[in-house]
Amino acid sequence: MRDGYIARWKGAEYDSSPDGAHVRLYSPTGGDGFVQVAEGRYRRGVPIGELEDFFYVRTVCTWRGEPFLLLGASGDWYRLEYRGGRADTARSLGLEPYDNGVYQIWAPAEEVTDISEQYL
């Protein structure tokens, strides 16, 4: 499941983050011009004009008929964040308040449907 900026550069897709007129590309393996910033994480800055594509992606799904973001997975469970914007519905589903107006839950993976990526 993806959630964040993606840049396509020289035919490959990278997790990325905007940085003014440049974009920081992140790779688990490194390569030409990439610098290691952590174990298994390499970074390279590229002018935004060199990118083939740049977009934001998030993974969405449905649970018990309501819209959610798919945030993560652990075994046969998915971490979901409610997108419906109705506190009464969130409470009726037994969702956990995570922040003001934000509700999350661990749900069995077999109950989660309509998983897809949404490009923004």
- What is the alpha-carbon Rg in Å? 17 Å
Q: Report the sheet-strand fraction.
A: over 45%
Give the helix proportion (percent range). under 10%
Shape: elongated
What's the end-to-end separation, in Å? Answer: 15 Å
Supply the helix-strand structural class. Answer: mainly beta
Number of strands: 11
How would you summarize what this structure contains?
With 120 residues, the protein is mainly beta.
Structure description:
The protein has one helix spanning 87-92; strands at residues 3-9, 12-19, 22-27, 35-38, 41-47, 53-63, 66-74, 77-82, 96-99, 102-108, 112-119. It has 120 residues and is mostly beta strands. It starts with a strand and ends with a strand. The model has no long low-confidence stretch (mean pLDDT 96).
Describe the structure using short key phrases.
single chain, 120 residues, mainly beta, eleven-stranded antiparallel sheet, 1 helix, 64% strand
What is the secondary structure topology, with strand pairs?
Layout: E1 3-9, E2 12-19, E3 22-27, E4 35-38, E5 41-47, E6 53-63, E7 66-74, E8 77-82, H1 87-92, E9 96-99, E10 102-108, E11 112-119
Antiparallel strand pairs: 1-2, 1-6, 2-3, 3-5, 4-5, 6-7, 6-11, 7-8, 8-10, 9-10
